[in-house]
Amino acid sequence: MANENGEQLDRRGFMIASAATIGAAAALVAGSTQLQAASTPATAATSGTQATAYTGDVIDGKKVVTSLDVNELEAGQTHRLYFQGVQAPTGQHWHVSVTVAKGAKPGKRVVLTSGVHGDEMSSIHTVHTVMNQLDPAKMSGTVTAVTDISRPALESMQRRWPNQGRGLDLIDMNREWPGNENGLTAATRHAGLLFNRLLRPNADAAIDFHTGTTGFEVTAFNIGEIDRPEVKAMLDLYPVSQILNMPKSAYPTVLHNAFIDAGIPAIAPEIGAARVLDRDMIALFVEGTMNVLKHYGILDGPMGRTAEGMTVFVGNSGFPVLATAGGIVEHMVKLNDKVVPGQKVAIQRDSFGEVVAEYTAGVAGEVSGQRSDAMSEPGNPLLFILFNKTPQEGVEIYPE
Q1: Is the dihedral angle over the CA atoms 216, 221, 223, 227 positive or is it negative?
Q2: Within 10 A of 263 (CB to CB), how many other CB atoms are there?
Q3: Which of 61, 114, 169, 376 is most buried (CB neighbours < 10 A)?
Q4: How far apart (Å, rounded) are the C-alpha atoms in residues 70 and 49?
């Protein structure tokens, strides 16, 4: 689940307060020949005239590109490429896996992304499963999958990108979109390269898959703004029982909202716990994604299960229940349970087995996430409750 802790808040506050300084520094950085050259394809991508650029390198039999136009690929085939991302501290590049199922007939283009956080395995497996079911010879349109966006985080199966710029800093890459090719961190430059040269130019619709974070599992739910008709149409095609109806203004720097800003309808599914494969949940999101591809005319055939006939709880915010003590946590409710204000939702015991804290719901809603690690220190989220907040305004900040 795309959340943010106190450390991130401090960093964001500092960045906003120092906007003028950062702008000046960015201008100096942009003055380098290398970064000026890197920014040129971004202009092409914005204008819609971007061409595929091959580096001439081949990795494990797969060609490497620095920009991609799926219209140039041969129709009726699956293409596997590497996209050259940002440089690592050694000067080598982080390469991102790209699979393109190019239909035999023209049609809509859908982009599927995962691996923005490095501990989200079910999201990656969902995309793999969808792509392995596609037969380009029978398709109209194109499906592009990028499954390892935050490569440095994935290498150690941790949530954040380990940035080495000013000593080790862990950056949540889902706070960096649409990125900046001339930015001051590797993560934001990487986001800018991917968004400008790979993702945005090849998308008529997009789905960015996630899971809960390490130590915290979530229900099967989707994030998207239901007031946008094309977004609501996608949300309704998934057989899941919760929707976080979050306006773009409340969640501004995540990947699916960067697509929205670019005029591309997008949603963000959440698929259970981190670091594991939840096969039951994965099946739900594979079925929903295949429905989306049928909705856009890329695939033929009848729809699978959708939200029709289901009781779907729609909320516009998440209420966190935070630990006030250290100790072992016992949950009194389960995922998807309905709760009311004042209801006991968890207790906590110290090393003597004595109860040191009791926790209650502060709102009426449904449980959308729970801490899965049994131990907790003060400040950790123990629970998230999906609920409706009135009025809804401002940026939503979620602790992790």
Answers
A1: negative
A2: 9
A3: 114
A4: 12
Question: Cβ distance 369 to 335 under 8 Å?
Answer: yes
Torsion of CA 331, 332, 337, 341, to 10 degrees: -110
3-state secondary structure of 178: coil
pLDDT at 3: 42
Amino acid type, 310 = M
d(CA 340, CA 357): 19
Give the chain's end-to-end CA distance (angstroms, integer).
9
Is residue 381 reached through a cis peptide bond, with omega within 30 degrees of 0 on the bond before it?
no
Q: Is residue 65 predicted with pLDDT exceeding 80?
A: yes
Per-residue pLDDT reduced to its tens digit, 104-136: 999 999 999 999 999 999 999 999 999 999 999
pLDDT at 163: 85
Nearest to 145 by CA among 160, 154, 134, 158: 134
Residues 6+ apart with CB under 8 A from 45: 67, 196, 197, 200, 201
Secondary structure (H, E, C), 282-340: HHHHHHHHHHHHHHCCCCCCCCCCCCCCCCCEEECEEEEEECCCCEEEEECCCCCCEEC
What is the reported pTM?
Answer: 0.87
Place of tokens 């959308």: 368
